[in-house]
Amino acid sequence: MDGVWEWRILKLYQKPDNAAKNEQAMAFMSVKGPGTFGSYDYGDTYLNDIHPTAVLVSGPDILKECGRR
């Protein structure tokens, strides 16, 4: 990651303690980066696909609660 990506977790599909045990845990996200031209793209992503140094700007640190950081 080059630090210009912004990730917002809008909805976690499992409780954090269950997501910690699930390698395929997913969340509904909004992501802003160089390829989105200043706007956000929305969609589902695996928590494991979010880079550990990504900038998460919404709510509590869900990745930490799910054991991903």
Account of the protein in words:
The protein is 14% helix and 32% strand. It is of the alpha+beta class. The protein has one domain. Strand 2 and strand 3 form a beta hairpin. The radius of gyration is 12 Å and the shape is elongated. The mean pLDDT is 80.
Any chance you could write out the topology, listing elements then pairs?
Layout: E1 6-12, H1 16-21, E2 26-32, E3 41-46, E4 55-56, H2 62-65
Parallel strand pairs: 1-4
Antiparallel strand pairs: 1-2, 2-3
Coarse shape: elongated
Widest sheet, order of strands: 3-2-1-4
Kindly give the count of domains: 1
Low-confidence stretches: none
Our measurement of the CA-to-CA distance between the termini, rounded to an integer number of angstroms, reads 15 Å
Total strand segments:
4
Average pLDDT works out at 80
- Biggest sheet descriptor: 4 strands, mixed
Helicity range: 10-25%
The value of Rg in angstroms is 12 Å
Strand content: 25-35%
Helix tally equals 2
Structural class: alpha+beta
SSE order, one letter for each helix or strand: EHEEEH
